[in-house]
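Input chain follows. Return structure tokens only.
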Amino acid sequence: MTPPPVLSLRGVERVYRSGDTEVRALDGVSLDIRRGEVVGILGPSGSGKSTLLLVAGLLEPPSAGEVMIDGRLVSQPGAQLDQLRRFRRRHIGFIFQKANLIPFLTAVENVALALEIDDVPAREARRYAAHLLAGLDLGHRLHNHPARLSGGEQQRVAVARALANEPSLMLADEPTAALDSVRGRQVLALFREIADIRQAAVAVVTHDQRALDLFDRTIVLTDGRVSEAAPEKPVVTN
């Protein structure tokens, strides 16, 4: 039996209202993302890309439709998302445009905190955090505070933090926007490795056209709708 997609959206809408004004940020979006897959989400500003990640990441409920993760229905209109806090920590990793590291904590402390919040003992949390950072070529930066890290290094710490609870779904919102082309590609290449090695499903919102070859496929949003989906890369067999 084929396993269910890690992320499945069905007929998702997200409507914001301000007085008599209605903004339909998402308008009937349906999509699946499977294990080991890296999907780029493209589209102009205001097309609904970030809203899509908020709904998929259980930070906002849909106005209509359903969100399923690993085959489990986790969100629908009226869902009490604060009750899913623990599920979200264990199943979803977030990376944003800014690393959002805590400035008075070192790199290893920033990553370990994600584990300690989930009741992992501090010593074990720091040991695993150091392991993750070493795997991202930051073993020599464990005890540096964010101010002493480059932009690319800060973003790699953010990636390590998102990986701490071994999520099955990784969501990244413009993770390379503040980086130059070399460091931006390095960060996107990390997502490719995460999908391949950890078999996570990865969705990346981006305007960056420089590394589209690292995606298995791309989804284009226009006015809250999926207007185009590039075909998946062909599988090459020997």
